[in-house]
Amino acid sequence: MPTKRTATKRKQPAGNGILLRYRDQDTSFGVTRKTASRLAKTLGLSETQVIHVALANFARQTLPRYEADNGPLTQQQMDEIRRLQPQGRMKVKESLF
């Protein structure tokens, strides 16, 4: 008699997922499944949540949080800044470093 297969209640990935391969040993660029599991247990999260937290922290640390500017000031802009500056009170620096 054929057996009836029950549908799994596993959540399907949203959109285009990625495959994560754990490393054989912990390095600067990856962790083992054991380390991910320990982190999840310590933080009270799932392994998937640990990965999202790590990526969110990496994004905050790495990506700029402001719009890129238009580059260096023009000579006209520099002249206007010098003109508006109170005389004798401040010293003009062309560079911060």
What attributes characterize this protein structure?
single chain; 97 residues; mainly alpha; 3 helices; 38% helix; elongated
Describe the overall structure.
The protein has three helices and no strands. The longest helix is centred in the middle third of the chain and has 16 residues, at 47-62. Helices cover 38% and strands 0% of the residues. The chain has 97 residues and is an all-alpha fold. The protein has helices at 33-43, 47-62, 75-84.
The secondary-structure class comes to mainly alpha
Report the principal-axis shape: elongated
Total number of strands:
0
Question: What's the helical proportion of residues?
Answer: 25-40%
Which sheet architecture does the biggest sheet show? none
- Secondary structure tally, helices: 3
Strand residues, percent: under 5%
Oligomer: single chain
Distance between the termini: 81 Å
**SSE order:** HHH
Q: Regions with pLDDT < 50 over 5+ consecutive residues? A: none
